[in-house]
Amino acid sequence: MSSVDHVDFYCERLGPGVWAEPVNAVTNGAFLIASALLFRLLARQPGRVPVSVWLLPAMTAVVGLCSLAFHTLATGFTGFLDTASIAVFILIAATVTVQRIWAVPWRWAWLAVPGYVAVTAGVTAALAAFGVRSVLGGYLSALLVLVGFGLAIRATATPELRRLGTVLLWTASLFAISLTLRTLDGPLCSALPLGTHFGWHCLNATVLFLVGYTVIRAWRVQVTRA
Known about the structure:
Blueprint lengths: L21 H5 L2 H15 L7 H23 L2 H27 L3 H4 L2 H17 L6 H22 L2 H26 L12 H29 L1
Helix pairs in contact: 2-3, 2-9, 3-4, 3-9, 4-9, 6-7, 7-8, 8-9
């Protein structure tokens, strides 16, 4: 790979090369572990598991693989795959959560997608007014939506589901720490040559696991009530 092809976004990377970010690359294994744990949890469930419930475990693995591609190949295209896979996970998670928590018909649950896009556009525009790069807007809106879902579930869901709202609120707290580590990777580079992005991988994998776990538990409650 030529130096013209490679992009340098993170503190750990000092130049072109597949293993120029070894820690950032290896810690993507956290996403694969999170995915495997979710798949194992689903494999132990009695009866047929709907395709919608399998989506988040699968997307967790996809996020890890796309991020691994970016932190090894470090091209503009793999960077797009990295951010796009996370965006797809968020949109699926929002839709499936609405359907599973509140039993909203699928023909209406998908409206969570334009709703999230609208929130992201608003947050991104607000940050742009202060000169903050747009990519942070997508992640900050994800944090706000996590908090919103957590509070909404606590306030409006059936009693057996309300504790999942608490899970999402703790997940939002963890994601806030994760996002902080991602943001500080550049500013702290001179003091921490390894950077802090690897912490984003480890904590974000936990966040994706907890979101997937929430959907699985909500589905099980739906099945039990039926």
